[in-house]
Fold this protein.
Amino acid sequence: MAKILPPTGIWLESECYVPLQCVDPPMRDAIGQLISRYDQLGRYLDRDAADRLNAYFGESALRLAAVELINREAASIVREASQRLWLEDPELILPGGNAYTTRRLAACLRDMDYFLRYASYALISDDVTMLDERVLNGLDDTYKSLGVPTGPTVRSIALLAEVVCEQLLQDGLADQGTLQTVVGAPFNHLCRGLATSNVRAR
């Protein structure tokens, strides 16, 4: 059954927001993918599989803490990330900027929230490929058709990751390197996916 995904009109220069439509694929997780792969090969789980599972379960507390933080503080995370973006590039919220007017600003904040939510799904499942299916596939065509610059979008996603990692670091849940590797992974995947698209830079 077709499902309309959230509007992806972030940083639009017009006020037309076009939703993407796609067939909603089933979500997967790292364990399900691993077992499915070995099942297709007709093999027992070997040492490599055991190590992968051990690593996944070893990171589970951090993943859960990150998702709980995002669920609890989503609005403040988006607000803080957006404020940092405006400070870095104040032209965005000045007349003529992509986030100028209350309506456009609200749309930008809404879409940042969507990116944050999908990143949390990929984080808990340890499966960044779901972001290709549910966010990135088709987004390039939509952005190109609307003439949407991706530069501010990519930066906003990076700032979302920065804010989340900073809060987890303050809580003493992991060191900076682990946070970047585990928690930052889905955000980095989104940034790379958008940065490599053929949409004009701002």
